[in-house]
Amino acid sequence: MGKSLGQRAAAYSPARLERGVWAGCAVLAPGFALASDVGTHRVWGWTAGAGYALAALLSSGSRPRRTARAVAVLGAVLVPLAGLVAAGLAQSEVAVVERSGRLLLTTGSPYVSAPVSVGDFNPYLPGMALFGVLPGDARWWLGGAFVACLAAVGLGRARLLACPLVALPCAVGGVDLPVAGLMCLGVALAGRGRAGRAGLALGAAAALKWTAWPALPVALALVAASRGGRSALRCAAVGLATATAAVLPFALADPAGFHRNVVAFPLGLTAVASPAESPLPGHLLAAYVPGGTVIALALLAAGALLIALSLALRPPGTVRAASARLALGLGLATALMPATRFGYLVCPLVLGALALRTPPRVIPVAAVQEPAPTGEKALA
C-alpha cells in the first residue's frame, strides 16, 4: 500500500525540511574548512559545523524549532566571531576598513594616494571608513548595522542569520552586510511610500560600496510606479544628495588616488591584482581568456542595460518585484565582475529573502479610496 496523504505531508513538513537544511550545513561547513587555505575560514568552518550539527539534533526532538535556530546562530555566528576577535584574526577587508578609519582621522582622507601593494588599496567608498572610526573591532559594527536594518524590515530571523553565506562574513569580515541591509531597508521604505527615508537609506548604502548604486534606480522605478513622479523625484534628490555629500569631497580632493582605489582596482585595471578571485565567470574570463577583462566588462554592461530596459518597460510596482529585480541584477554583476568573491552573493541572497517574505501585491495608500455611499447615506 502506498503512503497516505498525511504520511506524505509529514515527510515534507517544515520541521523535517529544516532539520535537513541544518544537517546539510553541518556537512558543508567542515568541508569548506578542509578546502580553504584561509585560517579564518577554517576556524569558522569547524565551529559552524558543530553548531549546525547540534541544531539538526535539536530539530529532531520535541523542542521548538526556534531553539535549534538560536543554536545555529550561536555556533555559526557568535562563537566564531567572538573567538576570532579575541585572537585578532580577520579577513583582509576588516584591516582595510579599520586602516581607512585611522587615515580619515589623521589625514582627512581614507585613501592612500599612490598605493603600491595590495594592502595599500581601499576599494570601498568613503562611507565605509566610518566603521573603522568606531571603537573596537569593525565586525561588531558592520554586523550590528546589518541586523538593525533587517529588523526594521521584518527580516531579523535566525534562519537568515545562520545561513552560511551570511554567517561566514559576519564572523570573518562582513563589509557587504551593511550594504545589503541598507538596500533592503531602502527598497522596503520605497514600497511603503516613505520616499525621503528610502532615499536616505539608499544614499547611505551608495556611500559604502559601488554595488549599492543599482538599488537607487530600482527603488525610483518602484516609487514612480506606486506613488507617482513627485515622490520618485524626492527619493532621487535625497538619495543622490546623501551619496554625493559623502563621496564627492574625497573624489575632488584627490581624483587620481580616488580613481586608483575605488575604480581601477576593483575592476582589475591596476598593475596590482585584487585578491577577490573566486572562480566565477567574470574572473575566469579575465584570468584565462585573452582580452577576457574587456569581455567580462562588456557582458557586465550588457546585463546592466537589460535591467535598465526592464525598469523602463515594466517597472516594479511592489517591494517583492523590486527586490527580486535588484537581486537578479546584483547576482549577474557578481558573476560577471573580473574581480569578484562568492561573499558578494550575500546582497542578492538577502534581497531575495525580502522578496520571498513580502506579500505579492501591496496596494498603495494613495490607491485606497472610501467606498461609494449607498442607501440612506447616499441620500443624506
Describe the 3D structure.
Helix content is 69%, strand content 0%. The protein is mainly alpha-helical and 380 residues long. α3 packs antiparallel against α4 (65-87), α7 (138-152) packs parallel to α10 (176-191) and α10 runs parallel beside α18 (346-357). It starts with a helix and ends with a helix.
Outline type: globular
Cα-atom radius of gyration: 23 Å
Which stretches are poorly predicted, pLDDT < 50 over at least 5 residues? 362-380
Roughly what is the average pLDDT, rounded to an integer? 86
Termini separation: 68 Å
Topology summary:
Blueprint: H1 5-11, H2 14-35, H3 39-59, H4 65-87, H5 92-107, H6 130-133, H7 138-152, H8 158-162, H9 164-172, H10 176-191, H11 195-206, H12 215-227, H13 229-253, H14 255-264, H15 281-288, H16 292-313, H17 319-336, H18 346-357, H19 375-379
Helix pairs in contact: 2-3, 3-4, 4-9, 7-10, 10-11, 10-12, 10-18, 11-12, 11-13, 12-13, 12-17, 13-14, 15-16, 16-17, 17-18
Characteristic terms for this protein:
single chain; disordered C terminus; 69% helix; mainly alpha; 380 residues; 19 helices
